[in-house]
Design brief:
Length: 221
């Protein structure tokens, strides 16, 4: 009798994943879906392919001025209007010696591809294996106190046919101590009819293949 559960979901509940699973290796799309694995590329050199991300980086630098990091209050919705659906503001909360991440605002594209979790803590709103993956991404930028570029197949809800390119940018109310993050992610798929987006999908696919070789997830969809 059909339980109504997707077989991948059932497998995940039976065999909890660890961060190692999520960062590879993987031998192909089917294996990645079963094992919930998709390598993530971290690029501190910020070799951005998405024009809107280049604008976000320039805006972050403009808002910080002579400070190490800009404050959240320095950004208006008008400043970010060209990327509102793709962005997320995250608060960094210290809770009894533990660092937690609360989603202050999540755009509609992020809602669609990930989950509508505005107002929720990441560690309460998503499965534990994704908490590890997301928090690793956040920690990279916070520890560096500098933006970091990320790129990966979308493992969340098994959307391996999509590739996301994003920026994780630290924010600081006092200019020096990280208090939040601005996360902006654009998603691309091979089924688009938009030539520009298709070229970006191909370029990101090639980059992931070069970075991870046989461990990269590949899809013909």
């Amino acid at each position: 009798m059909d339980s109504g559960k997707h077989p991948v979901t059932s497998a995940c509940e039976k065999w909890p994943m660890s961060a190692l699973n999520y960062f590879g290796p993987s031998t192909g799309l089917a294996d990645a879906i079963l094992g919930q694995r998709a390598p993530m590329l971290f690029d501190p050199a910020l070799n951005l392919k998405t024009a809107e991300l280049q604008l976000i980086l320039a805006l972050w630098n403009e808002k910080r001025g002579a400070r190490r990091m800009p404050p959240r209050a320095g950004f208006s919705m008008r400043d970010l209007s060209f990327a509102l659906p793709q962005l997320c503001f995250v608060d960094v909360v210290q809770d009894g010696g533990r660092t937690r991440y609360k989603i202050r605002l999540m755009g509609t594209s992020m809602d669609h591809h990930l989950a509508p979790i505005t107002g929720k803590f990441v560690d309460e709103a998503v499965p534990p294996q994704f908490v590890e993956r997301w928090e690793t991404m956040y920690t990279r930028a916070l520890d560096a106190r500098a933006p970091i570029r990320v790129s990966s197949r979308v493992a969340f809800r098994d959307q391996f046919y999509l590739i996301g390119e994003g920026l994780v940018l630290p924010l600081a109310n006092d200019g020096e101590t990280p208090s939040g993050l601005l996360v902006v992610i654009f998603h691309y798929g091979s089924d688009t009819q938009d030539e520009k987006r298709l070229r970006l999908f191909a370029a990101l696919t090639q980059e992931l293949d070069q970075a991870f070789g046989d461990d990269a997830v590949t899809s013909q969809s």
